[in-house]
Amino acid sequence: LLFGTDADADAPVHHVHWLVVSRQARASGVGRALMRDALRRWVREPADVEVVTFGADHPGATESGARAFYERLGFTPAEDVAPGPEGGSRQLFRRAARVRPAHPEHATTYTGGPA
């Protein structure tokens, strides 16, 4: 999981830059646990959390399960964004933060999870 913060706005916007879970570990709760941990540690309200993933018409949208995963976490589809490097459609998903960090210090980037 690669997680970062854009603190230039009045309310920070946190970005999920990269989340990868092996096929064998999908549907086991690993992705949800990584996201929950990152949000708990680093996100303060008020804030939005954003992630860019496959567009609805992209073949990877169903194959990877990414869109459904983020929707289960409370993200909603927002605007379309520039196509991915392979030319496929991409869409921004967004949700309002609903957590408070366990640690008072502010961090701009969090990486974690199994290698």
Q: In terms of topology, how is this protein built?
A:
Elements lengths: L1 E5 L6 E6 L11 H13 L5 E7 L4 H6 L1 H7 L3 E6 L8 E7 L12 E3 L4
Parallel strand pairs: 2-3
Antiparallel strand pairs: 1-2, 1-6, 3-5, 4-5
What report would you give on this structure?
- With 115 residues, the chain is α+β, with helices and mostly antiparallel strands.
- The protein has one domain (2-111): Aminopeptidase.
- The protein has helices at residues 30-42, 59-64, 66-72, and strands spanning 2-6, 13-18, 48-54, 76-81, 90-96, 109-111.
- A six-stranded mixed sheet has the order 4-5-3-2-1-6.
- β2 (13-18), α1 and β3 form a beta-alpha-beta unit.
- The chain is globular.
- Mean pLDDT is 79; it is low at 100-104 and 106-115.
Judging by the overall fold, what is the CATH architecture? Answer: 3-Layer(aba) Sandwich
CATH homolog superfamily = Gcn5-related N-acetyltransferase (GNAT)
Write down the domain tally: 1
Query: CATH topology, what is it called?
Result: Aminopeptidase
Query: What's the number of helices?
Result: 3
Order of helices and strands: EEHEHHEEE
Which stretches are poorly predicted, pLDDT < 50 over at least 5 residues? 100-104, 106-115
Question: How far from one another are the termini?
Answer: 10 Å
Question: What share of residues is helical?
Answer: 10-25%
Strand content: 25-35%
Major β-sheet profile: 6 strands, mixed
Mean pLDDT score: 79
Question: Order of strands in the sheet with the most strands?
Answer: 4-5-3-2-1-6
**What spatial form do the alpha-carbon principal axes imply?**
globular
CATH domain class name: Alpha Beta
